[in-house]
Write a structure and sequence with these properties.
295 residues; six-stranded mixed sheet; 9 helices; 10 strands; 37% helix; globular
Length: 295
């Protein structure tokens, strides 16, 4: 894998559109300064219309900036040669419905000029990676939304890219499909890939990203490490197990005497996603045991 200083770097990146008969000026992205370092999962957040998609299109060389500059893997974003090292999963994957998984990956491998043997090897590896080995010969028109997103991710990885852009990768997925997609993204980081994740689903970004940037109306509002941005520094949380009421009261008294304001002593909560997955997977295990006892 080639060495590079930045996966993404922008300076004053700006894109202005003129729409309608009146040629109304719309600034989609304004003076964006951004750096994404190799090997991280970087989240680009924002509501609809915040400039996320426009930014990614400029990074992919699909849109020309109105002003400013953008580099991808230390090369100008418009450099065609750099496209061989980029993978892209759009929000809506444009896949051929009558091809199966192997044929789909073989087709995209041909577009990248991969030899036949390499295409077959990559197809097998990627189908296994995204968990679709059971449906490798099934036409894509029979795929569920979650299966389509997974084969879309495999397509984005067919050229073994250094840098992967994922646009709303969990869009339309149920909680189990969402967790599986997030696990795949974490796996890409473990394999040394750099990932730019564009999303408006905050929980997904929190779970997988090292750093995030928040855009609003085309302007960068916040950038930093997820843990530091979410940390409430003025509150200290003490976590313990099997604490009886007497010990809790003693702890409350000691903290109060030390000048602390005790806001509450309570049990932590899990996330709704974790509860849902635990319930569904637990129910599946119970059913398997039930079937086994009847056999």
């Amino acid at each position: 894998m080639a060495y590079y200083d930045y996966a993404v770097r922008t300076e004053g990146l700006t894109k202005t559109f003129f729409t309608g008969w009146s040629r109304r000026r719309v600034e989609a992205v304004v003076d964006l300064d951004l750096e994404v370092v190799p090997g991280e999962v970087f989240g680009l957040l924002g509501p609809n219309g915040s400039g996320k998609t426009t930014t990614t299109k400029m990074l992919l060389g699909l849109l020309r900036p109105s002003r400013g500059k953008a580099w991808v893997l230390d090369r100008p974003a418009a450099d065609v040669a750099i496209k061989q090292r980029i993978g892209y999963l759009p929000e809506e994957s444009y896949l051929y419905r009558f091809l199966d998984a192997e044929e789909t990956l073989d087709f995209y491998g041909q577009l990248f000029g991969l030899p036949r043997g390499e295409r077959r090897r990559r197809a097998r590896e990627l189908i296994d990676l995204v968990g679709l080995e059971y449906a490798r010969k099934r036409p894509l028109k029979e795929y569920s939304k979650g299966m389509a997103r997974r084969i879309g991710l495999a397509q984005a990885l067919v050229n073994d890219p250094d840098f992967v852009i994922l646009d709303e990768p969990t869009s339309g997925l149920d909680p189990i499909g969402t967790r599986e997609m997030k696990d795949l993204i974490i796996g890409l980081r473990e394999r040394g890939k750099t990932v730019l994740l564009c999303s408006h689903l905050l929980a997904d970004v929190r779970d997988v990203c090292d750093r995030i940037a928040i855009l609003h109306l085309g302007r960068l509002k916040v950038v930093g490490e997820v843990t530091k941005l979410l940390e409430v520094s003025e509150i200290t949380q003490i976590t313990a197990k099997s604490v009886d009421e007497r010990t809790q009261e003693n702890a409350r008294r000691i903290l109060t005497e030390g000048g602390a304001k005790v806001l509450g002593i309570e049990h932590p909560t899990t996330t709704l996603e974790d509860l849902f997955l635990k319930t569904i997977r637990g129910a599946g295990s119970d059913e398997e045991r039930g079937h086994g006892s009847q056999a």
